[in-house]
Give the backbone structure.
Amino acid sequence: MILTKNGEKRLLHADEIECRVGNWNKDKTRYTVLLYKTARTDMDILDEVFGRENWKTTHYEVKGKDFCMIEVRIRFEDDSAIMENGKTITYEWVGKSDCGKDYQRVAEDGDKKGINEYEKSESSDSLKRAGFQWGIGRELYSAPQIWLDKSVNSYDLKVEQIEYDSSDKICTLVISSKGEVVYQFRNGKGTAKTEDKPQLNVDHDTLEKIRDIAQKLEFEGKKTDDILAYYQVKTIGEIPLPLWEKMLTKVRGE
């Protein structure tokens, strides 16, 4: 959060926030979503709050890391020789800086990328981090942990709505993919769209075996409700018997 010239809070709007994939769970069935801002958003807000002529950036290197300093021209009233409306005014540049992420020189797939591309990424990241120092987008740190099913298209995620409480923390968040709402966070609780799973035709004997394993897992401290929530199903019959057997073997360390 950054303050405008009128002392009003300037929080990020929904269309100023981007989404990207964070981490996948072990089974590669769900992934986390991270909210972030772009360097362009930082520059636009600096223009809006301070004016284009009243801020500047300086990039410099320290121990191989790219730092960016954002300096803002601040107006003070003191004994300067500049007179404005009968008042003595002076201007001073105030700076805040941070370093960018140390991007690897080689992509995860083994293909070498151009050094200039990595330098641009690190330079852009250092500007965004320096923007956080000024308070731009700091409210994103209050974002809830967002998990989405692998069936949700991760390339078209969009923040549709965002609201903040009196402490500038996110209290409402709505994310869509291909025009469909896939995640909502309201009143401290988040709900995500899950993949529609077909009901399994489980015979009586198989269901009895599953119930027996579920009871054994309960005895080992693994609650059935937690297991159903993890696999995002409503009944034990929706989880195949081999998976139940695998869980029991893993818990017992066999």
Summary: The longest strand covers residues 65-84. The chain has a mean pLDDT of 85. The radius of gyration is 26 Å. The chain has two domains: 2-192, 204-252.
